[in-house]
Amino acid sequence: MLAPKARPSFFRAAMTAAAIASLGTLPLQLLSNQSVMIRADLHFGEAAQGLLVSVAFGIGALVSVAITRFGEVHGRRPLTLLAAACTLACALGIALLAHHYLVLLLFVLIGGVGQAGLTTAANFSLSETVAPGRQGLGFGVKQSAPPAAALIAGLAVPAVGLWLGWRWTYGLLALSAVTLLLAATRIPRKAAPSAPGVRNSAAPTAATTDVPRSAAPLPQTVAVATAATTDVPRSAAPIPQTAAVAAAATTDVPRSAASTHQTAGDPTAPATNVPSSATLTHKTAATTTAPTTDVPSSPPSPHPAQPPAPLESAPRSALFLTACAMLTANGSAMALIAFLPQWAHLSGLSASTAGFFVAACSALAITGRLLVGAAADRRNGRNLPVVTLQMAAGSIGLALLALGNVPLVLIGGLVAFALGWSWPGLLIFAVVRLGRDRPNSAAAFVQAGAFAGGAFGPLLFGLVAGSAGYPAAWLVMAVGMAVGAALLTLARRQFVADLKIRPVARTA
Fold this sequence. Notes:
Helix content is 63%, strand content 2%. The protein has 15 helices and two strands. Strands 1-2 form a two-stranded antiparallel sheet. Helix 1 (10-33) runs antiparallel to helix 8 (166-184) and helix 11 runs antiparallel to helix 15 (470-501).
């Protein structure tokens, strides 16, 4: 994490994360909000539309954990570049080449990888640039990305899709992906870990380092024949007494303080003149190079170094139940996003009015996420019960959609969006707080459930709607949201039980 003084402002950091995540979800949001036009152009039905959304979220579920690991190892810069490139390929492919359903399916698949990567990159950006005390609101802003993308896509229908054609919306999306690619090149690279205890083999020798010579005795080897020519007091630089040091006789040392020592290997060599205070000892050729720094040797520690404590993780069973709750509830939410524009149109609204309706629902979802995120920063824990209540309210809104008349569709859509789709940010925030020493891994595990739900929900909705009608499909989604609330209640009980055994300074 960045040092506090190195962090950008909260507004900038949170909006950057939200923009990154929004770009990843826009391909599917544009597909859902323009489904009336796209289905008429490429000739496919409800089940095929559900398959498109399911494929995108399914591939996201498969790669989300691997993408998180890639980001942890290589950093968020290459992660963001890779994900933005996938989104760019998806947008360009749909805009230029998707003239058949299978081609559209292929590029939606690529877009699913981009969505998973950009969602993970946004999480990394938040954890590195937002102070812990404001991460609840930060995750609320970031998790406002999907409804923000739905809002943009809803407004894109009357502003661009009905005017220039639906392909132009993907062309504009491609330009946004290029902008993100350029911006990602400015993200600092991840610092390479230093290897402790490894010395640089190219370090300078003692004779060339800028340290006092009294602390850097010359190498005591056979090859050091020039020791006597160093500009060092002779009392601090004893001369090697070996057969190779024949040039030592030329030293310019006062004779008055000299004592004569002859080299054993050359009895005819002139006597070397050195101060009598110097202690000269005979050195062999195997003597190693002296230390090169002016640092005294530290005494050995009386306590041996202890191995680092193993990293703690959140309880697996509780995480599994949370991921299952995310699967069922998010599956219902993704079906809501994918089919509400079509259902509003079938209920009696025009295509442009349905787009504005989805935009209004998305604005309420953004507001709800921001409010619950800000509230999470003001309390210590008890986030999961709030998520449970939101899921229960969302199931009521989905049930209202099944009634089919325009007023109830409007009310049900607003309730389902404002409450039933404002909980993901708070849930991820709670999981990060409960993740102990592995918050990113815990979040990735639960996020995999979100992607699996995105793959499961729209496909199931499309199959049920194609065979039994839209009202039956909405009721199935209402049940799914209610099951998610029940599973999350069980998960919180396990989190709380684990906290009593392994207490930390935060609760669920």
